[in-house]
Amino acid sequence: MSRPEDTLPPDLFYNDSQSAKYTTSSRILRIQAQMTHRALSLLRLPFPSLILDVGCGSGLSGEILSSIPPSEGGPHIWIGMDISASMLDVARQREEASEGDLLLADIGQGVPFRAGTFDAAVSISAVQWLCNVEDSSEGSSAQVRLGRFFAGLYASLRRGGRAVCQFYAKNEAQRGMISSAAIKAGFGAGILEDDPGTKNSKVYLVLTVGGGETVGDITGVVKGMEGVDVVDGRRKRERGKGKREERKGGKAWILRKKEQMERKGKIVKTSSKYTGRKRGPTF
Known about the structure:
By secondary structure, the protein is α/β, with parallel strands linked by helices. It is 34% helix and 18% strand. Helix 6 (142-156) crosses helix 7.
């Protein structure tokens, strides 16, 4: 059976009929609830928080966020964003999802909120859609869209904030592409897989923003868990700091500036062996 993201873009796949079917399926409701509770357990929020629900759909996860009892750190306030107008319309009509604010937006274009707005973020079965693009142009590639999303998500979280993204990777290459994009944006990242090797396998990308109570250390979030693959690309960058001084206009300086622009979702020219070389005099 083909995967939904291989057939149509999400705004077309989740039309009025498909959105209603998704929201009334008892199987989907049960699985969505399980994954949302799992994501909350990984976020470890000790008090009511402002949470961004990425790819909120019809508000199934938001309903759970609003219903967390005070004894478990809730209830939480949430804002949901999704690319499907039909899904958001269903959420607007559902009384259970009425406590959250909704935004129609494409996460592949970034996260349009002020820096440090959210305490945490959760995403259930949404990020893998960024890996399938209809437009083959350079500015619409999967890598660029993932970069825009994670750079925007990183900026929208407060220092010490956390995010958990559950997704269904098509293969190991896609899984690596998603986690690499998060690390490139500045996150500390850990991948946790429930029921590995089975058809019920669920992958969770656990992300932290440096500073605050986590001090950028993802191991504080997944401490004691088995089968967790932890990758924190910032530590390599920290070890390399101060080794040699960058010359403005030099190759290292240019490459660093290009990387910064890519994180912001901007298109930059491909680097080559000629990058940063001084040009000879012209006649």
